[in-house]
Amino acid sequence: MTVNADPAELAKFSELAHRWWDPESEFRPLHEINPLRLEWIQGMAPLAGLRVADVGCGGGILADSMARKGAQVVGIDLSTKALKVAMLHALEAGTPNVEYREVSAEALAAEQPGSFDVVTCMEMLEHVPDPASVVRACADMVKPGGWVFFSTINRNPKAFLFAIVGAEYVLNMLPRGTHEYLKFIRPSELAAHCRAAGLAQQQVRGLEYNPLTRRYSLSSDPSVNYLVATRKT
């Protein structure tokens, strides 16, 4: 199986892996949005007792928080360094019910089809060569009626201005080169990928940042960052 990953993207995040759990590092935005996305997921799929796959888990920020809500979590990624950081953090923090594996979404779907109650794939689709393949894999690994949650970045002039120029060059919230505009995904494109994979869209929310208050919030505007909740039909 050809691995659906960009070596340059893996190298980029591997270099920063040791900083995943530093809330003042390049990963500060992920730490700040995590309570929002966790509450959003919990609102539709209460996690206690559920089996969850976190695709593209990185250093485990979301996976760790879902495990603390009582889910049995498998976090997967193709960055060896990020996974080692995730494992070390789980060990040090005593996080229960979480394991990490270096495996692709497609490989896990082939190995364990229809075996998860919830699948999350957050801030990951815009970093892979073939996002449709990841969407299919997420659909394949979730049970019928199960939930699949995505978050990514819209592709339009406003998103370029806010997510790249603003976040990477003006506010220095992210390292320069974190995102590539042409890899951004319009909501209509993600919706088409989901329909083709047998996932029915349930909700779309925008994620906005106020530079004055330095706070994130969920909104009805998906023009830059957005989250999509789907269920397997």
Automatic annotation (TrEMBL):
GO MF annotation terms: 2-polyprenyl-6-hydroxyphenol methylase activity; 3-demethylubiquinol 3-O-methyltransferase activity; polyprenyldihydroxybenzoate methyltransferase activity
Keyword Cell membrane: no
Keyword terms, alphabetized: Methyltransferase, S-adenosyl-L-methionine, Transferase, Ubiquinone biosynthesis
Pathway(s) where this gene product acts: Cofactor biosynthesis; ubiquinone biosynthesis
Biological process according to GO: methylation
Gene3D superfamilies recorded: Vaccinia Virus protein VP39
UniProt enzyme class: transferase
UniProt superkingdom: Bacteria
Signal peptide (from-to): none
EC number: 2.1.1.222, 2.1.1.64
Swiss-Prot/TrEMBL catalytic activity: a 3-demethylubiquinol + S-adenosyl-L-methionine = a ubiquinol + S-adenosyl-L-homocysteine + H(+); a 3-(all-trans-polyprenyl)benzene-1,2-diol + S-adenosyl-L-methionine = a 2-methoxy-6-(all-trans-polyprenyl)phenol + S-adenosyl-L-homocysteine + H(+)
Pfam families: Methyltransf_23
Binding site for S-adenosyl-L-methionine: R37, G56, D77, M122
InterPro entries: SAM-dependent_MTases_sf, UbiG_MeTrfase
SUPFAM superfamilies hit by this protein: S-adenosyl-L-methionine-dependent methyltransferases
Family recorded in the similarity comment: Belongs to the methyltransferase superfamily. UbiG/COQ3 family.
Database matches in HAMAP family: UbiG
PANTHER family, per the entry: METHYLTRANSFERASE, UBIQUINONE BIOSYNTHESIS O-METHYLTRANSFERASE, MITOCHONDRIAL
Function: O-methyltransferase that catalyzes the 2 O-methylation steps in the ubiquinone biosynthetic pathway.
Listed name of the protein: Ubiquinone biosynthesis O-methyltransferase
Organism: Ramlibacter albus
Gene: ubiG
